[in-house]
Amino acid sequence: MKTANAAEQTGDKKKTPRWAMVIDLKKCIGCDTCTVSCKAENRTPPGVTYNVVIQNEIGTYPNVALVNLPRPCMQCDRPACAQVCPVKATYKMENGITAIDYDRCIGCRYCVVACPYGARYVDFGEDYSQEMLAANEIQSPEYGVDRGKREKGKSPINNVRKCTFCLHRLERGEEPACVETCVGDARFFGDLSDPDSVVSKLAASPRAFRLKEELNTGPRVIYLK
Amino acid sequence: MSEHSQKSKRSTLWYAFLILLMVAGAVAVFIRAKEGLIVTNLTSTAPWGTWVAFYIYFVGMSAGAFLLSTLIYVFGMEQYEKIGKDALLVAILSMVLAMAFILVDLGHMERFWHTLWYMNWTSVLAYEVRFYVLYIVLLFSELYFAMRIHLIKASSLNDWKGKIAKFLSFGSKDTSERSIQHDHKVLKILGTIGLPVAIFGVHGGTGALFAVAKARPFLNSALFPVIFVVSALVSGTALLIAFYVIRNKVSGNPVDQKMVKSLAGLLALFLFIDVGLEFYEFLIGAYGLEHEELATITTMIKSDFSWSFWVVQMFIGVVVPLFLIFARKTKESVNAIAAAAIMVVIGILGVRFNIVLPALIVPVMTGLPEGYYYPTWIEILSSSGIIAMGLFLYTLAVTVLPIHTESSQVSSNHLTFDHRTTGRSEETI
After folding, report:
1. Over the Cα atoms of chain B, what is R_g?
2. Which residues of B touch A87 (CB under 8 A)?
3. A54 and B38: CB-CB below 8 Å?
4. Nearest CA among B206, B204, B213 for reference residue B359
5. How far apart are alpha carbons B219 and B358 in whole angstroms?
6. Percentage helix, strand, coil, to 5, in chain A?
7. CATH code, A15-224
8. Which H helix or E strand runs over A187?
9. Domain extents for chain B?
10. Could you give phi then psi for residue A222, rounded to 5 degrees?
11. Is the ipTM of this complex over 0.95?
12. How far, in Å, CA of A93 to CA of A99, rounded?
């Protein structure tokens, strides 16, 4: 990570940011606002949830605790999903985001099996049209692509989907929806290649850790213990 | 009723049965194509199911059948000559079925060509697809050279079979001893190229496809590709025994008991190695006390799904067949050996399902939902339809093509095999 940063800094002045997210677990109250705002922002269908808050009970009575672990896509630097994709539909963007080309993806779901974080979902084509007016009339402009109506047989249906760090929001200068709506201000977002950014400073904290570091996937989502 | 009309009635029934299954399968595939993956019971937790299990099942069957064919064409074990072309045919058709299964499984079937058009240098699957193509081409060329001389002979017949044979001989008319020797040489070369392609590329590679998934500790083991290859040998050998015996019983031809017994010996050997390796896989996996690993093993041996391990994989697939092959009462009977072989073929199906599913039942992170999977009717009917298509094509091929040229005919073409025919003990029904 350090060497990557050094290389990033020697580039030209107008270099692309390398996005990263920091989640302070001490501040997370497990309210699931991130999950809900993510669904609203990305208009994900039933069964597709880019962000979840995993809740686990630890310890034995009477010393028990409920631990919340918000889990977006880790946007790994060495993503297992991109490694296995047979057609390079999943790939690493320069800005650090692991993207999916819906029009290239064949829907083999190998990446779902390969992801160590369970961050990938198959879009089976379900929708909220029974619960919501005009549910299929518009889709979120993921990766900056306007796909119009949600229609059977058309991508992203039958593709694999996952959190994009709200790339379409970043492009217009906004933070990802989960970061913006977090009630406890537990989420931070920024450029990890900028040593002065909040995320860079937090990432250097002794509280910082990443999920399944032993797998060497290099997640760009950093947690604070 | 004469024997002939009885036979044709039986074959009509057989075809009707297969066509029925194929029609049901076609309807299921059509619904699946129209409605998408929603018609399956797959989920984001367990994204692979029946179709993927059948896909690796048939890739294994193909690799196993092919490896058996190399015993004949590369290593010169003439005692198995009778099943040589059969092995190649089974290898080809198994690959066709495997490709059909994985095609049906794709979320976007219409983009199947992407797998050849786009390349990801780090993806095992990307290499696999290309190995499959190379392997299928190799198999077809091998089968051609194995059949060439028989095709030329058959093309002298004046019926429709003769015409097909004439077409498939691709204008070759040379029946000289030299051309036969040449065929043998080509077969040896193709088989030799095919060996590493089948072992490391096609089947070891398919095992590696699973083994590289570091997110799934149970799969992430270097022993996996090896187990894949060995279990391929098990299923390939078993299927060929079953086909050989059934085919000869149905057509009323003598069954070479000595060969069947010898093949059963091979089958038992492969089974022992397979079970032994599987034991190590479990031992080393469990020894690490890693949570996911233990949970996966528990899913296999002690859960709602464990019947597939104990009943299908172990009892039907290993215990009973080994008993039949070794028990004094049954080891001389080709019928018992054929039954053992059929059971192994079913048992390996359990092996394949237990490769794909248990690791997907256990969530990758504690707190994420557990997987649960049983196929839907669409998945079952499409699968049986595809398998019926395979049996249909097999029956058609052995009827039309000179696949089963019986021993006398074969040995007259293969001078080196002549002395063997006399010493063969043949059992007739």
Report:
1. 22
2. 114-115, 117-118, 120, 126
3. no
4. B213
5. 10
6. 20, 20, 60
7. 3.30.70.20
8. strand A187-191
9. 20-35+45-212+383-411, 222-372
10. -115, 135
11. no
12. 7
Side-chain half-sphere exposure of B379, counting CA atoms within 13 A: 21
Which residue from A80, A90, A83, A76 is spatially nearest to A4, judged by alpha carbons?
A76
Comparing CB atoms, the residue among A89, A115, A125 nearest residue B215 is A115
| Whole-number Cα distances in Å, A2 to A7, A93, A147, B106 | 9, 19, 38, 39
* The model's pTM: 0.91
Q: Which residue has the higher pLDDT, B357 or B177?
A: B357
Asked whether B413 and B178 are in contact (CB, 8 A), the reply is: no
Contact B217, B290 (CB under 8 A): yes
Pairing of strands A121-122, A98-100: unpaired
* pLDDT tens column, B49-85: 999 999 999 999 999 999 999 998 999 888 888 888 9
Q: For A171-218, what is each residue's pLDDT tens digit?
A: 999 999 999 999 999 999 999 999 999 999 999 999 999 999 999 999
Q: Contact at 8 Å (CB) between B108 and A158?
A: yes
Instruction: Give residue for tokens 């208009």.
Output: A43
Interface of A with B in 17-76 (CB under 8 A): 47-48, 52, 54-56, 69, 71
Q: DSSP secondary-structure letter at B366? A: B
How far apart are the C-alpha atoms of B80 and B69, rounded to whole Å? 8
A47 and B44 within 8 Å at the Cβ level: the answer is yes
The tokens of A115 are what?
Answer: 């992801």
Q: Within its chain, how far is the Cα of B300 from the centroid?
A: 24
Residue B84 CA to residue B65 CA, distance in Å, equals 9
Contacts 24+ apart (CB under 8 A), B151-154: B151/B401, B151/B402, B153/B402, B154/B402
